[in-house]
Design brief:
homodimer; alpha+beta; three-stranded antiparallel beta sheet; three-stranded mixed beta sheet; 6 strands; globular; DNA-binding
DNA sequence: ATTCAAATGCAACCAAATTGCATTTAAGTT
DNA sequence: AACTTAAATGCAATTTGGTTGCATTTGAAT
């Protein structure tokens, strides 16, 4: 388990107080966070531009990855695979959105079978998004 | 193959000139369309509110379904299964986004494998989104 | 031809996210 | 420890994607 400082260093990012605070939100949550989630968690202490730019640099350096869950805001979650770096994400896991609590989780354990593409298509990456009720809400 | 008029009738929607025009864009395209795509195709002849509301009513009546492809705009594509109606979509197929031409296609033939959820999760729906190069761009 | 709910278009609005620019700060160098 | 500089930050303004309120028009059932 790295500290926020180590994690930033490992991905080539300068350590700042703001980045530490934002990164720790991800480390303490077990679900994907949107800008609004973060803004609420840090009690609106940071300018929104800073938060958005921080999310972008975290994503570009492979610390977090985008989670599509059909909501109007983009969400992000920590990359756990360790294999993520700049512009090379390795998140072949399943994203699960709970229809009751509206949280979206990364199910790192669920294996996604490799799909067979029709003739002529070349597959680079696949992502699976499922909905239902999470453990707490079932 | 239904005409646009028949298709609207079958889904309980009033036939209007605007709906005909918009629906025919979907029938002529083999890929998912965003508001901007449609606006360009019809040469900005309709108010954006009309287009957005038309898309919403098409979706709610089961004529088109939402396609998430990671782009900033929501896209839609015709429901081909025939099993779609109001608030009951049956689009268990794969969506494929081409990284070169940036079009997103419905691969109706590629079946989505049923995933095994971890203990405690209840699964309601699943959707698969893949990226790569399409037939034309390979 | 009449009727009326549904569809349309305009203006205004809202939410999410980005850009330009001046200021501050982290971290390497003397 | 002070110096330097590129990167990070914050404010204001803007852009983009989409929605709401309301008055007018239109499709299709009588």
């Amino acid at each position: 388990m790295s500290t926020s400082k180590e994690l930033l260093k490992e991905h080539g990012l300068k350590f700042t107080e703001n980045r530490k605070v934002i990164l720790e939100q991800f480390m303490s949550a077990n679900y994907a966070l949107s800008y609004n989630d973060i803004d609420a968690m840090i009690a609106q202490k940071l300018d929104k531009v800073t938060v958005y730019r921080t999310l972008k640099s975290f994503q570009e350096s492979g610390i977090i990855h985008e989670v599509m869950d059909g909501s109007s805001q983009v969400k992000y979650a920590l990359c756990h695979s360790g294999a993520c770096s700049s512009h090379h994400h390795h998140d072949a896991h399943v994203h699960f959105r709970c229809e009751k609590c509206d949280k979206t989780f990364c199910l790192d354990d669920v294996k996604v079978p490799l799909l067979q593409m029709p003739e002529g298509y070349k597959l680079n990456s696949q992502s699976v998004f499922v909905q239902g009720f999470c453990r707490k809400c079932s």
